[in-house]
Write a structure and sequence with these properties.
By secondary structure, the protein is an alpha/beta fold. The protein has 2 domains: 6-161, NAD(P)-binding Rossmann-like Domain (Rossmann fold, 3-Layer(aba) Sandwich); 175-258, ProC C-terminal domain-like (ProC C-terminal domain-like fold, Orthogonal Bundle), CATH 1.10.3730.10. Helix content is 55%, strand content 15%. The chain has 12 helices and 8 strands. The protein has helices at 15-26, 42-51, 60-66, 76-86, 104-110, 141-152, 165-173, 175-192, 197-217, 222-229, 235-245, 248-273, and strands at residues 6-11, 35-38, 55-56, 67-72, 94-97, 114-119, 129-135, 155-159. An 8-stranded mixed β-sheet has the order 3-2-1-4-5-6-7-8, sandwiched between helices. The chain starts with 5 loop residues before the first strand and ends with a helix.
Length: 274
Amino acid sequence: MKEQRYEFGFIGAGKLAGSVLRGLVLKNVCRADQIIVREPNAEAVYPLQHELGIAIAADNRALVSSADTIFLGVKPQMVLPVLRELGSAGEDKLVVSFAAGVRIQQMEAISPARIIRVMTNTPSAIGRAATGFAVGSRATAADRDLVFTLFSGLGVAIEIEENHIDTVTALAGSGPAFVYAVIEALAKGATRGGLDRDAALRLAAQTALGAAELALTSGKTPQELINMVVTPGGTTAAGLELMKQRATSDAISAAVEAAATRSREMAEQTSNSG
């Protein structure tokens, strides 16, 4: 009996990889029957198998033998052990790693695969991802085009040099959490004024969504968009002045810098232990 072939194999389907999987299928970037997954967590596997109809592999080697492009969705500390386990089975394969802190050079040193690093985020599940990707020395133009096409189908995809990927990790990977914190803060301010919490959260989230869409589509800078809202001596001006006094902008910028620093620290730790 002829072995069934799959376009894409996912080793690990946790929060990030699972979001990518769901987005690929739900946004019709690819079909569910083109994907096979190896994920030991039964809670993560159930929706993939029963809701999306994605095939489940018995083990990593079975997955690699039946899929052309392999996505690594495991924790950073497991990336190099998994590549070592696969050994020569990775030859002639494109391996796409989602892991923060594990450099292409480290992966290429122990695997014959063609490597591309991708840093994306959980909004990929609804086709609203922000993705940066860096191409390894053995990856081909076709590999690069494939990754760009897949992740452009899930939102915005930008090719970057790998030395910038820690910053993209902080901005795109960690960034949604920072935005959620802002949404929570906006809603909290409204509830202090007496607004129902559910209503405040819905209005805050929609406000963030609308502002983001306008920032992407208007061609205007953030400052130009701010100027469109502000009236001297008005309500927005009062709020912005308090944000300035409390260094809100600086705090958010510092959060991105702290996340990038941690990503670089993780890379150093992985390098020393690998």
